[in-house]
Amino acid sequence: MNKLIEIINLKKHFKSGAQTLKVLDDLNFSVQKGEIIAVTGESGVGKSTLLSLIGGLDSVTAGEIRIREKDITRLGETELTQFRGDYIGFVFQNHFLLNEFTAYENILIPHLIRKRKLTRDTDRYILGLLDMVRLRERKDHKPGELSGGECQRIALLRALMNRPEIVIADEPTGNLDEKNSMLIFDLMRTLNRKFKVTFIIATHNQAVRKYSDDIYVLKQGKIFRKA
Ligand SMILES: Nc1ncnc2c1ncn2[C@@H]1O[C@H](COP(=O)(O)OP(=O)(O)OP(=O)(O)O)[C@@H](O)[C@H]1O
Ligand SMILES: [Mg+2]
C-alpha cells in the first residue's frame, strides 16, 4: 500500500540567542491512508510542532514531508494554501467556532472560504454530518447556546467540510471530560470508516489507545512506535 504521508530526516530547530533547541531531529515517520494515528509524549517534546509541519502551517529546518508523494516543504505560500484546502482539516484543543454564526454556518465556512456555492449536495452533506452527532435539530444554535462537547463535535465536522484526506487534531479532547472525549474519539472512528479519513491525533488522553490503529511516542527529537 502506498504511504499517504512520508517524513524523511525531518528537523525542526528553534534558535534563541546562542542556543539551538532541536525539537525534531532526523525524525522519520510514515502513515498509511485510512489510519488513525496517535502521537503521544511529554509536554514540550514537539507534538504540536510535528503536527503543524505535517499540516503545512510552519516551515521545516531540514528534511522532507511527502504527502501523496509530493514534498510539501518545497511548496510556495499559494500552493501550500491550496494544498491545505484540498487535503487537510484541522481540529485544536479550543473549538475556535465563530460565536456570531450558527452551528450549520460554522461547518459551512471552509466551503465558502474556497469560494464555493451552497448547493443542495452541500446542504445534504452538512445535514448528514449533523445527523451523525445527533445535532441536526441544534443546527441553528450559536456556539454560546451549545455545550463545550457539542461545540467540539461541530468543530470536528467543520474540519470535514472540504472532504479532506487527512485530519490533524492537536489535543482535541484537552478541554473535555471523559464522556465528551469518548464521543470525539468515537466520531473520529466513524468518520474514518465512512469517509476513509486519516487522522493524526496529538493527545495526552490514554483512552485514545482504544480508538487508534497505532500509537507513537515522541522523545528527544525522534518518534517511536509504542508496542
Ligand atoms: N516558535 C517557537 N520558538 C521557539 N521555541 C518553540 C516554538 N514553538 C515551540 N517551541 C518549543 O518547542 C518545544 C516543543 O513544543 P510543542 O508545542 O511542539 O510541544 P508539545 O509536545 O506539543 O507540548 P504540549 O504537550 O504541552 O502541547 C517546546 O520546548 C517549545 O517551547
Ligand atoms: Mg502541544
Spell out the key features of this protein.
227 residues, alpha/beta, Rossmann fold, 6-stranded mixed β-sheet, 4-stranded antiparallel β-sheet, 7 helices, 34% helix, 29% strand, binds adenosine-5'-triphosphate, binds magnesium ion
Set out the fold topology.
Elements: E1 3-16, E2 19-32, E3 36-40, H1 47-54, E4 62-67, E5 70-71, H2 77-87, E6 88-91, H3 103-113, H4 120-132, H5 148-159, E7 166-170, H6 178-195, E8 198-202, H7 208-211, E9 214-219, E10 222-225
This protein binds adenosine-5'-triphosphate and magnesium ion.
Residues 47-48, 170, 202 line the site of magnesium ion.
Describe the structure.
The protein has 227 residues and is of the alpha/beta class. The chain has seven helices and ten strands. It has one domain: Rossmann fold (3-Layer(aba) Sandwich). The chain has a six-stranded mixed sheet with strand order 6-7-8-3-9-10. Strands 2-1-4-5 form a four-stranded antiparallel sheet, with helices on one face. A hairpin with a 2-residue loop joins strand 4 and strand 5. It starts with a strand and ends with a strand. The relative contact order is 0.20. The structure holds adenosine-5'-triphosphate and magnesium ion (MG).
